[in-house]
Design goal:
Rossmann fold; alpha/beta; binds magnesium ion; globular; six-stranded mixed sheet; 8 helices; 34% helix; binds adenosine-5'-diphosphate
Amino acid sequence: MDGGAMTTLLDVRDLHVAYRGGALWRSRPVPIVHGVSFRVGRGEIVGLIGESGSGKSTIARSIVGLTPVARGEIVLDQGTAHVGRARHVQMIFQDPFASLDPRMTVGAQIAEPLAIHRLVPKALRRQRVSELLTRVGLSDAVYDRLPHAFSGGQRARIGIARALAVEPALLIADEATAALDVSVQAQILNLLMDLRDDLGLSILFITHDLAVVRVLCDRAVVLRRGRIVEQGETVALFAAPREDYTRLLLASHRTLEPQA
Ligand SMILES: Nc1ncnc2c1ncn2[C@@H]1O[C@H](COP(=O)(O)OP(=O)(O)O)[C@@H](O)[C@H]1O
Ligand SMILES: [Mg+2]
């Protein structure tokens, strides 16, 4: 992907995030993210990689407005600093069903955000959900089923359909495919790439799996203990990492990658 011609969708500038300790004796906030800056272009897939506890999910939560920003700015589409409650950023998680109601049909739950955000008139919602199901590679029969007895891959697709319902510009996937079998994971990654190609969707893909980054991401941002170690185009980064830490990270994962 040509980085030069790409317009910026998400601009994270000098982001600092701190968590307040729960106990009274530790009321001073604990800094977790220390001045992180990166961008996601329109139609670009960017990988945010780092070990467990490095602050990946914290950054994601700040971008969607669930965790307050201590310092710095998060700018979406060159607009206002606070993208928080906007529908333009949607998240998908490892267990998309954690947020679904087990007694309500999948179709009704995909339709819910359409009503909340008044995007589609009531009479047309059923049709819109059918389009979304098709879009993510599911049969329309899924509409009337309850959210049990779906496979991991189907669950992931349903989670993606629900996120797409509000026509977001940016999708944040937080370890969304981590629990899937390798072949199912590959199908979901293909779906995400298709969505990027067809809808111009931007994706921030959070993972600790470097093999996935290599397949999916145009660029990658390497995070360590709340700081960016290095970032760059995936191909260049994997071929010639500049920092020792990135080299170590790549070396430690080399055996997980498919042999060329
Ligand atoms: N709500 C919270 N309150 C206090 N500390 C937190 C909270 N959430 C995460 N942390 C801490 O922040 C650090 C980064 O966590 P997280 O962003 O979840 O990392 P990652 O997603 O990279 O595994 C960890 O040390 C974690 O224990
Ligand atoms: Mg996390």
